[in-house]
Amino acid sequence: MSSTTDLARQVIRKLIESGVSDFVISPGSRNAPLSIAVHEAKTRGLVELHVKLDERGAGFYALGIAKASNKHVAVICTSGTAAANFHPAILEAFHANIKLIAITADRPERLRKTGANQTTDQVGIFPNVPSFDVVAGLKFELGDGPVHLNIQFDEPLLPNNKSDWLSGIKVGTGSVQIRHPKNLAVSGNGVIVLGHDLGTFSKADIKSFIELSGLPVIAEDPLSFKNAIAHGSAFLVDEAIRNYLKPDYVIVVGRTTLSRSINSYVESADATYVIDPRISTIDRKRTATQIFFELPKLEVASPSQAWISDWNEISRLAALEISRDEIWSEQRAISTIAAALPDEAALFVGSSRPIRDIETFARPREGLSVFSNRGLAGIDGNLSTIFGISNYFERSFAIVGDLTFLHDLTALLSPPAANLTIFVIDNNGGGIFSTLPQAAVEGFTGFEEVFGTPQNQDLEKLINGFGLEAGKVKTDSDLRRAISHEKTGLHFVIVEVPDRVVMAENLVKTYARISSAVRIGLSLA
To answer: What stretches of 320-446 adopt beta strand conformation (E)?
Structure first.
């Protein structure tokens, strides 16, 4: 038996015994010992094997499985640039604390810096992520976030016998993290703000935490918390309303980095309490009045009922104004989708405008498993992430922008077998930039070229070119029919919406109407 084959088998065996059951592989020569070993484990029914051509997509596909399962998932590639293509997914996993295992095959160390083919220094190629340069033995550990195993394989790469190396293997179930909660006693008028990934805590734990508090809750993901305050990021745009609702304290669970209005509101509090285990390892410079790495035992002195009533009334007034807007827009489309999706389904929300529109315009509900790449909020690899997530649900949905879709187009080379509907919001370009300061730089004439970036692609023809089904909609009723029609397999719904300038102008008008209605309702006008 070659030492290379023996090393590969030892690594795969240890991973299986550590509870790893999903392996994603991109084809290559140097990683052949690992690929063969994983396939042998698959034939014994010990693991699930997923093969993806593109290493960048493979990384995000594995990330999606890890998100949905909350288990370690391994993604394997050959040496050289293949390893570098894992970096975007590793960055997302690092900042979101996702259990992604990047396994990069490597040439022996003696070949580094000699001009040898497909050889570079892969050790530490992913900064801040624990990295193990495996030569012999199994000196590596799995943590609660991503890890990098760089494995040196020398020739010969292929096995020369068929020993039963999986005999007697004990499949692991993974470790359970022990919690050590502290106490937090607060008084006065306060608010809980929930970041999209809930600081890596479970939805069940967060629900118990907020229900016991009795406090108003602003959720970046309102589709998971039916009693959250609706449209907070819309009415808090108004400084007068923020001042009226000035809190004595805010309890922040996870990160809040997208809504400027909510960030401004949090900064206005007399005291801020942040709960996020990543502060001990990733966000170590984050500050607050007090920081907790685990959900504390919360003691809330009874908040003013007038305080709670004000939040509910302001939310009601904002919802009323939003409901009066009958103009077809991407915000209306996304709200319609969010309300109509069936319970027990998964929903992936793409970065850029979709996640902002869900937070701002969708009515709070529950019954969905909601995901998004919020570690670094990039648009790359979103389709691959969705495909990975869809393995774990009977029915899945996703909402992405047209540029996000085009960015990961090669994912369509290997579509999932799951029942998955992807809504592509087509405004022919980067709609988010029309709502940002870049759109109003005086004297700047290159906005469309460098920010708007219209692609002028027929998305339906692109999708059909991969042998996949796509349809177009541009009304509420069309959208509801697309959702209610339970098609099997993968299909796309292209949501045609007004151009980006019209969308940005309508948003400004909507915010103005909300502000006016709330000010009048509170006698602030």
So the answer is: 346-349, 369-371, 396-401, 420-426
- For residues 424 and 492, the answer to whether their CB atoms sit within 8 Å is yes
User: Positive or negative, the Cα torsion across 461, 462, 465, 467?
Assistant: negative
The Cα angle at residue 90 between residues 273 and 385, in degrees rounded to 5:
90
- Residue that has been written with the tokens 């304290």 in this structure: 249
Q: What is the pLDDT of residues 195-244, one digit of tens each?
A: 988 999 999 999 999 999 999 999 999 999 999 999 999 999 999 999 99
Which runs of consecutive H residues, i.e. helices, occur in 80-214?
Answer: 81-84, 87-96, 203-213
Lookup: tokens for 190:
């306060």
Residue identified by tokens 């177009």 is: 472
CB 330 within 8 A of CB 503: yes
Q: Is 461 exposed, middle or buried (0-12, 13-18, 19+ CB in 10 A)?
A: exposed
d(Cα 17, Cα 21) in Å, to the nearest integer?
9
> What are the residues facing 192 on neighbouring strands?
217, 251
- Percent of the chain scoring above 90 in pLDDT: 74
Rounded Cα distance between 522 and 331, Å, is 26
- Whether residue 151 contacts residue 11, with contact meaning beta carbons closer than 8 Å, is answered with yes
Q: Note the pTM of the prediction, 2 decimals.
A: 0.94
Place of tokens 């984050």: 286
Q: What does the block give as tokens for 262? A: 């909510």
The two tokens of residue 269 are 């509090």
Total Cβ atoms within 10 A of residue 239: 13
Task: Please tell me whether residue 39 adopts helix, strand or coil conformation.
Answer: helix
Q: What is the CATH number of domain 330-511?
A: 3.40.50.970
Cβ contact 524:348 at 8 Å: no
Among the listed residues 287, 296, 104, the one whose alpha carbon sits nearest the alpha carbon of residue 192? 296
Contact 366, 345 (CB under 8 A): no
Range(s) within the chain of domains with CATH label 3.40.50.1220: 183-301
Write out the two tokens for 318: 């904002």
How far the first Cα of the chain sits from its last, in Å, is 82
Judged by DSSP in three states, 458 sits in coil
Residue pLDDT, tens place only, 394-445: 999 999 999 999 999 999 999 998 999 999 999 988 877 777 777 778 788 8
Cα–chain center distance at 494: 22
For residue 337, the tally of other CB atoms under 10 A from its CB is: 28
What is the DSSP secondary-structure string of 45-78?
TS-EEEE-S-HHHHHHHHHHHHHHH-S-EEEEE-
State the architecture of 183-301 in CATH terms. 3-Layer(aba) Sandwich (3.40)
Which residues have a Cβ under 8 Å from the Cβ of 51 and sit 6 or more positions away?
24, 25, 26, 27, 414
Supply the mean pLDDT for the chain: 92
Q: Where in the chain is the domain with CATH 3.40.50.970?
A: 3-152, 330-511
| CATH class as words, domain 3-152 | alpha beta
Tokens standing for 493?
A: 């719904």
